[in-house]
TrEMBL record:
Biological source species: Dipodomys ordii (Ord's kangaroo rat)
ANK repeats: 82-105, 114-146, 147-179, 180-212, 213-245
Cited Pfam families: Ank (PF00023), Ank_2 (PF12796), Ank_4 (PF13637)
Chain's gene name: Potea
Keywords, ordered alphabetically: ANK repeat
SMART domains: ANK
Superkingdom as given in the UniProt entry: Eukaryota
Protein name in UniProt: POTE ankyrin domain family member A
Chain intervals for the UniProt region annotation (Disordered): 300-324
Length: 324
């Protein structure tokens, strides 16, 4: 059974203990359903234009759009009841010729009622040519919609690496966060988009990023059961001991999803951590003895601590029975 993040009440955390006031938060739980990929046809069936120029743009009718603009009755930046412009519709429906016609005269970064720009619509609906043209004309790739998503977040939802690459080439932030604190990499891992995650890491995405509930890349990789990505993140030295806002480390997620590689790695890290502590202690111990001798202090038998203000010459060494 796959482990996914779902809504549950905050009065009980992932580990079952109280965390505070009751309100909905994302937490870890098991469910069979997988996140549905973006269905552009279904989305566009609800993305209906209301104004005349908007309808013409959504239908790809270049002649009609030209006539509306030449007649002077329709402003190129005119908004419909949802604050969308003709450019929004042209980009959502992928009508490149309309986009090319409008882009010469319109304001390119106008936001609709959801704070979405035309670029966000083009990315969301996977129209790469429209994305490219908008970027060439100076569209801002870092505008966040009402959910905190930027154009690159939508490229990740649709697993469109070419659009993501194009956005990064035009200075889209690879660390922009949604309202839930999801960077593009965290979102890619959450959505189990391994190719996209690899692409983002190759482009220097921060593998140590955490969301608003302090959930790490490793936790998300475990949650979506991506063994390859889990191993890769562990090799890169991500913190296996980091705990989320509920006090749950990656090993907790691993136990729930039966991800043995994390459980084994955590045990290995704990042993390694103890060995490192012993080495530090031994090194400190070895440094203290000469320092004490240099200060003309008496040491105990193992040379680890001063005994008083006597001479170091009375320090007893084991072996040949001589006093030095």
């Amino acid at each position: 059974m796959k482990t996914n993040f779902v809504l549950r009440s905050e009065h009980q955390n992932c580990c079952g203990s109280s965390t505070g006031p009751r309100r909905s938060v994302l937490c870890c739980a098991s469910e069979n359903a997988k996140a549905e990929s973006f269905d552009s046809a279904r989305y566009l069936s609800r993305y209906k234009a209301s104004g005349k120029i908007h309808k013409a743009a959504s239908q790809g009718d270049v002649g009609k759009v030209q006539r509306k603009l030449l007649g002077g009755k329709n402003d190129v930046n005119a908004r419909d009841k949802k604050n969308r412009t003709a450019l929004h519709y042209a980009c959502a429906y992928g009508h490149l010729a309309i986009v090319a016609l409008l882009i010469e005269k319109c304001e390119i970064d106008i936001c609709d009622s959801d704070n979405s720009t035309a670029l966000i619509k083009a990315s969301q609906c996977q129209h790469e040519e429209c994305v490219t043209l908008l970027l060439k004309y100076g569209a801002d790739p870092n505008v966040r919609d009402s959910s905190g998503n930027t154009a690159i977040h939508y490229a990740i939802y649709t697993n469109n690496v070419p659009i993501a690459a194009k956005l990064l080439a035009y200075n889209a932030s690879i660390e922009s966060q949604t309202k839930d604190g999801l960077t593009p990499l965290l979102l890619a891992l959450k959505e189990n988009k391994q190719q996209m995650a690899e692409f983002l890491i190759e482009n220097k995405a921060n593998i140590h990023a955490v969301d608003e509930l302090n959930r790490s890349t490793l936790m998300y990789a475990v949650q979506c059961e991506s063994k390859y990505m889990v191993k890769f993140l562990l090799q890169q030295g991500v913190d296996v001991f980091l705990k989320d806002a509920f006090g749950c480390p990656a090993s907790y997620y691993a136990l729930r999803s039966h991800c043995k590689v994390v459980i084994i790695q955590v045990k290995h890290k704990k042993k390694q951590h103890k060995r490192n502590e012993m080495k530090i202690s031994l090194k400190k111990h070895c440094c203290e003895a000469p320092a004490a001798v240099a200060a003309d202090a008496d040491l105990d038998e193992d040379g680890s601590a001063p005994l008083g203000n006597g001479s170091h010459k009375q320090f007893l060494t084991k072996g040949n029975g001589e006093h030095k």
